[in-house]
Amino acid sequence: MKAKPLSAKELAALRHIRNRIAHGGQAPSIRELQSHLGYRSPRSAAEILERLADLGHVRRRADGKLQFLRDTPEAALQARTVDVPLVGSAPCGAPLLAEQNIEAMIPVSVGLARTPGKYFLLRANGDSMNLAGIEDGDLVLVRQQATAESGDRVVALIDDEATIKEIRFTNDAVALMPRSRIKTHKPIYLTTDFQIQGVVKATVPGWTKE
Length: 210
Known about the structure:
The protein has 210 residues and is of the alpha+beta class. It folds into 2 domains: 8-76, Arc Repressor Mutant, subunit A; 81-204, Umud Fragment, subunit A (Ribbon). It is 20% helix and 30% strand. The protein has helices at 8-24, 30-37, 42-54, 73-76; strands spanning 58-60, 66-68, 81-87, 102-109, 119-123, 139-144, 153-158, 161-169, 174-177, 188-190, 195-204. The strands form 2 sheets. The protein has a 9-stranded mixed β-sheet with strand order 4-3-5-6-11-7-8-9-10, with helices on one face. Strand 8 (161-169) and strand 9 form a beta hairpin. It is elongated, with a radius of gyration of 21 Å. The N and C termini lie far apart (45 Å).
């Protein structure tokens, strides 16, 4: 007998569990799942998990942690995604990925936001990287990491503001290089008084916030 298709809530729960495990390294708690699904009681979220387990989508491991086993047949034929936070400009003194900076959660293909890395999206401002294919208003997909190799396009935090540049290492300095048709943009030369937030992995052109 063919199993009854998953309800909208069950599909939402399964996708949220997959995203959290793929992007964050661990499954959501019952309370987190309750909040995500908009339930007033954790029991409702627990019942969703029980049904997903009965159907073989998830299971509890011996250590009590939730394990994702398989997606729905429909999802297996589609592009799989994870939710990636879109951050705006960081206020002075606030971490780039502070909760107040997250404007939205955007689905991104796992072919781009590859596990086990953590990613964020940042809106590009200005034209200092237009020769590198990053125009004003584009979104850049950034893998969070504190290191980079010479030639990487990075997001660096300087004076509490995020900037996207090509990084170059020399014997005694670091250069953040613009790649622009506008020749007024100049390199930024630094020693160790800056922070790399991540490395740019992809660009989404022409994206605008609704």
